[in-house]
Amino acid sequence: MVATRTVFLQLVKRDVRVALRQRSELLNPLIFLLIVVSLFPLGVGPGPDILARIAPGVIWVSALLSAMLGLDRLFRDDFRDGALEQMMLLPVSMEISVLAKIAVHWLLTALPVLLIAPLLALLLNLPTHAWGVLWLTLLFGTPVLSAAGAIGVALTVSLNKGGALLSLLLLPLLIPLLIFATAAVEAAVSGLSAAGPLALIGAFMVLSLTLAPFAVKAGLRVSVN
To answer: InterPro entries, from UniProt (predicted)?
Structure first.
């Protein structure tokens, strides 16, 4: 158990250090998110009612697309320099290494979104009593994006240009998450209970974090071989 925890933490620290050396790629998803959310008030007009009605969908679609921008580097560099094969030879189960990769992707792409979520809600005139539900949907939903994205990347990492294929694989799988996340925020805006959609998003998170490491392990073995 101690060795497993040590390897997990070392992998997280190593990937964070590598990502910090490529700050341009690190900032691209966040800048993309801010630009998209900022353009919607200009495109649909500054009417507060219109903005409040579309705010949940705009924020979640923007978060989904920005998370996908950072997926390509999840296993790409390790595959090119041979570190992926070395990771498979570590004295711990491959699932632990995959969880470390998913955790790093979440820290670098989803955590900034959680920090600026109030700003995004303010830009789109989302009622303040719905901010907490929006934050919870992002907290429970973004790990699903990272876990599902890791599966897609594992299947396409050996392809030279797998970005388009990755989008085709992931977007249909993430539609239920998008539906329930926006439904939860819309329920909060209307003064209704958001417990049901939030519970479903929490179930998605548990299932994805439990099953994704095994699927990623199988996908990486296929890609490497």
So the answer is: Cyt_c_biogenesis_CcmB, Cyt_c_CcmB_bac
Q: Which residues of 148-169 are buried (b: 16+ CB within 10 A; e: fewer)?
A: bbbbbbbbbbbeeebeeebeeb
- Element (DSSP H or E) covering residue 29: helix 23-44
15-72 pLDDT, tens per residue? 888 877 777 667 778 888 888 888 888 877 767 778 888 888 889 988 888 888 777 7
- Give the tokens for residue 181: 């996340």
Question: How far is 156 from 163, CA to CA, in rounded Å?
Answer: 8
Residue type, 109: T
For the whole model, what pTM was predicted?
Answer: 0.87
Q: How far apart are CA 205 and CA 99, in angstroms?
A: 13
Q: Distance (Å, rounded) from C-alpha 216 to C-alpha 213?
A: 5
Domain ranges of the chain: 4-224
Cα separation, 193 vs 214, in Å, equals 35
